Amino acid sequence: MSTTSKHTMTMQEPLLRPDTVPGPSPTRLGENTIALAKRLSLWYNETTFEIRDAKEPTDDTNSFCCGVGFGAQDQAIIVSVPLYNLLWIDVGASSVTIKYAAPAKASVKAASLTYPYEFPCHDEVEKWVMSLLDVAYGDAQSRKRCKVLINPFGGQGYAQQMFDKKARPILEAANCFLDVEVTSHHGHAIEIAQKLDIEAFDAVICVSGDGVPSEVFNGFGKRPDALTALRKLAVCQLPGGSGNAMCWNLTGTDDVAAATLAIVKGIRKPMDLISITQGRERLLSFLSQSFGIIAECDLGTEDLRWMGGARFTVGLLQRVIKQTVYPCDLAVKVAIEGKEEIRDHFRSRGNKQGGSQGETDEYIGDGLPPLRFGTVTDDLPEGWELIHQPNMGNFYAGNMTWMSAGAAFFPASLPNDGMFDLVCIDGTISRRKAVSMLLAVEDGSHFDLPHVQYRKVLGYRIVPHKREGVKEEYISIDGERIDFAPFQAEVHEGLGMVLAKSHVYDAPGV
User: Fold this and answer.
1) Does the annotation count 426 as an active-site position?
2) Is residue 113 a contact partner of residue 65, using CB atoms and an 8 Å limit?
3) Do β-strands 40-44 and 392-398 pair in parallel, antiparallel, or remain unpaired?
4) Which of 127, 240, 266, 452 is most buried by its number of CB atoms within 10 A?
5) Nearest one of 213, 197, 221 to 3, comparing CA atoms
């Protein structure tokens, strides 16, 4: 394990280019402006930070200064940086160093500019800078203490290299503390999360696919202080796998550097988690549970993993053509049934800022909250009815909108509404309808298709049936295979914690 500690603290678009514009010397006065020298001043408002200088600065990046050259020294140069991109400002004895995320093609990269100051004293400059950084970070925590878990097999084997080249410089420029550890085997992140000193960190950053975040949540869930760990430490993801669903939903990108910037400026957000019971086991799901065509495409296409995200599409088309069905018995505890009612709920709840931790606020204890509906081995909960589904084509339950890039399977999903979304589709629908549905998933418009059953649920029990002549049957929880046996699920409102750009997922919605 390597430990990294570096010296060096509202949301706007992360890829905006700082502007450099010749103009007159600044004359702004007030608390948002500070004059560092006769012809050098800094200024900010709610969205933008500006440097106005008649002299050429020192560029510590030895590359470019905000993308363009500086004009003649008898002109003032205005350098404009979106506050979202501002990472930190170091105040030295006689100079300030401004660290920010600069545009780099379709991404960003860490950059810095250094300016001397003459007029104000050090304490005055430091006080003004702290006020600026407070605005730049808003509700986000600055100088986050991060436990970084890297899956060396993720990102086609380049996860470590991607982190060191694209993520680490931004995190260090933002003065984040980094404790980096490389996972060595399946389940290693569970072991790390079980033993982690939760008082030493603010977030766990998983450089991986969706498997490592799932392991972290489950490692926290196995602790004696599970509730405290799940509430305290935010779980994040930098894209290092084939799906990267958590990253897409919380940061809106699979670009490593842009996602890192989103984590640096991310706000703490409670997120629902789902308990899964199978046999005597209980585990936590943050993303999805699937049985049928999605599970088979997720887990039964390992031979196509070299194709990246495209392997899911290829697997789906292969099975759609065959009109494959997956018989089961299903009981569902429905929260909202009709699509218009679901749309109304999404729009009303999605417009509300913030969020609570629901029933976990009322639970007094250290471990996981109790199960309201019992386990899969208990009698069926009151009011539930197991119904045989001989033609089930797709059983898919989700807690986030994006399951991968271009796959908004659950467009009505909300991070913290105490419900999760269930999509069921008959496997005998025509191939034309099936293909049209797959195309509509890209923007979530399949929600309105009549042959797509879409419900908000509190829980369910499913009993899968083996098909004659089929050797391998699949059930997937967060992309990981579990036994092909009955299981039961129920949601816990706000049990987990993440870092997000806003209070809803970065997705189209309904």
Assistant:
1) no
2) yes
3) unpaired
4) 240
5) 197
Is the predicted pLDDT of residue 66 greater than 50, yes or no?
no
CB-based contact 219:194 (threshold 8 Å): yes
Tokens of 117: 């100051």
Question: According to the model, what pLDDT value does residue 58 have?
Answer: 54
- Which tokens hold the place of 137? 């970070």
Q: How far apart are the C-alpha atoms of 243 and 407, rounded to whole Å?
A: 10
Q: What is the pLDDT of residues 170-200, one digit of tens each?
A: 999 999 999 999 999 999 999 999 999 999 9
Cα–Cα distance measured from residue 201 to residue 295, given in angstroms and rounded to the nearest whole number: 35
Name the packing angle between helices 431-440 and 310-322 (round to 10°): 160
Cβ-contact 249, 237 below 8 angstroms: no
Cα distance between residue 452 and residue 4, in whole Å: 49
Assigned token pair, 265 = 């400026």
d(C-alpha 225, C-alpha 194), whole Å: 10
Match 């500086």 to its residue by tokens: 70
The string over 300-313, giving b where at least 16 C-beta atoms fall within 10 Å of a residue's C-beta and e elsewhere, is: bbeebeeeebebbb
* Structure confidence by residue, pLDDT tens digits, 154-173: 767 888 999 999 999 999 99
Cβ atoms of 171 and 265 within 8 Å: the answer is: no
CA-to-CA separations, 357 to 108, 267, 282, 445, 478, in angstroms, rounded = 34, 15, 21, 30, 22
User: What band does 61 get if pLDDT is binned at 50, 70 and 90?
Assistant: very low
**Residue pair 153/305 in contact by the 8 Å Cβ criterion:** no
Residue 146, token pair as written in the block: 């991060």
Question: What is the C-alpha to C-alpha distance for residues 310 and 295, in angstroms, rounded to an integer?
Answer: 15
| Nearest alpha carbon to residue 36 among 20, 60, 52, 47 | 52
What does the radius of gyration of the chain's CA atoms come to, in whole angstroms?
25
Side chain identity at 413, as an amino acid letter? Answer: S
Structure confidence by residue, pLDDT tens digits, 290-349: 998 888 877 876 655 555 555 566 666 666 666 789 999 999 999 999 999 999 999 998
pLDDT at 86 over 70: yes
Record the tokens describing residue 502, joined without a space.
């806003």
Please give the Cα distance from 220 to 198 (Å, whole number).
Answer: 10
- DSSP bridge pairs for 113: 98
477 backbone φψ class: left, alpha, beta (φ>0; ψ -120 to 50): beta
Residue with tokens 């309105």: 448
The one catalytic residue among 53, 179, 202, 210: 210
Instruction: Name the token pair of 94.
Output: 């006689």
DSSP state of 427: T
